[in-house]
Every structure is written in C-alpha cells, then in structure tokens.
Amino acid sequence: MADTTSEERRQAKVAASMGSISRAGAADTTAEYDRLVSQAVELVNTPALDFLSAKERKLFLEKNLKKAESQCRRAIELDPARPAAYYALGCAQNASADGMAAAASFVKAMEFAREEFSTEWANAAMHAFATLMANASAPRPAWWADAQLLVYSERALTALPEATLTLLWRAQVLSGLPLALPPLATQRSAEQLRTAATHYTAVAKLLISKEEKRAASCLAALAELGVVAGAFVSAIDLVGIAAEGGPEEAVAAGLIVPVPH
C-alpha cells in the first residue's frame, strides 16, 4: 500500500513538472511570436535614409519588406490562429505592391480576430476591404455581398469612427458608386445617400492629395444629389462628369439623372 502511494506521488510530481514546462514553453512561444511581429512592423515602417540614391532606397526598402514577410511567416508557424502576424504580413505585402496577397492576409487577420467587430477586427477589415477594392482579380471572401458589407462597414466605422479607410468604406457601400462593389441588394434611401455624402466630405478633409480630395468631394456631391451607379452612366462616368463641370450642372443639363427613392 505504501509503495502504491509513493508511486502515485512520484507520478504526480512528474505531471506537475511537465505542466510547468508546458506553461513555460507556451509563454516562450507567445513572447517569440510577439517579438517577430513587432520586428516585422518596425521593418515595414522604417523609411530609407534621405542620403541614399533612388536605387539604394529601393533596395533598402525591398530588403526590409522581404525580411518583414519572413518574420511574419515564422510567427504564423508558431501560432497560426492569431491575427497580428497576418495583419503585419498584409502590410508588408501591400507595401511591396502585392495587393492580391495583401488582401488574402488581411482577410485572414479578420477571421482570426478574437472578437468580431472589435477594434482589432475593424482594423484588419478596413484594410481587407480597401485592398479587395483595389485588386479586382483577388478572390472574394464569403462576406463580399451587399447586405454583409452594409453590416461590416457600419461596425467597422463604429469601432474606428475617425479612420479615413472606415469612413471611405462606409461611404462607398452606402452610395453604391464604385463598380468594384457587388450588386446592390436594396435600393439606397435618401438618408443613406446623404450619410454617404457626409462621409465622403469627411474623407476629403483627411486626404492629402489634391486629386483624391477633389474625387471625394465630387462623390459627396453626387451622393447628396441621389445619383448612384446605374443611373444611365457608370460610377467612373459620374466622377468624370463631376470633375468636368460639377454634379449640379450635369444633373441640370440632363447628363446624369438621380435615381428616385
């Protein structure tokens, strides 16, 4: 009886020791994951020195982005169910002009965000939407449908109300103007179009490029007038007309026609 008890105690000690080793190993893995992601983010955000030539700057940035991607992939191998490495990988790929790969990485980051509609999720989601919009040939996720985009864009804007990308996302989905969007499931109301116009105006104030500011302002005016894609002309035509003579003049001349709602 005494021998059995002694053996049970020995096994319990061994089990406790293994548990401590396992916990220590998990902590080490988490620390290494965080270190790799942190380094990757730093590499993506490190600008080339001003005194370098154009060629040297290009090589410097390419080297940093390649190393950042490598760090992210090592982190994903350590823990493939955490979103941070996918997000950092998307940033590196986007900076390398690989928009299709970046879109896939940002979508992955969305999927693995701990809480859907959290700030972490919204940050990944707004970049996923932006890269998908910019890369028409990138595979579309299951949520790439009008009804779901209305929900996601609203939740992302709630989480990040002052981010340029979330404001633009919400404005685009509400107005339905960009051709890259899926077909509208419901006709937009006057209130939705006015809200889109408000968001486009806010985006225009946040943008630096004069061309981008003018484009956003034109879209705001078009949404305010109730003009949406499919109103006899495409979204590209609408922006072009607005840039040429202004949306009010185009409507007055009958070049574009507001959709009744």
UniProtKB/TrEMBL annotation:
Protein name: Uncharacterized protein
Family matches, as InterPro entries: TPR-like_helical_dom_sf
Lineage: Eukaryota, Haptista, Haptophyta, Prymnesiophyceae, Prymnesiales
Coiled coil: 51-78
Keywords noted in UniProt: Coiled coil
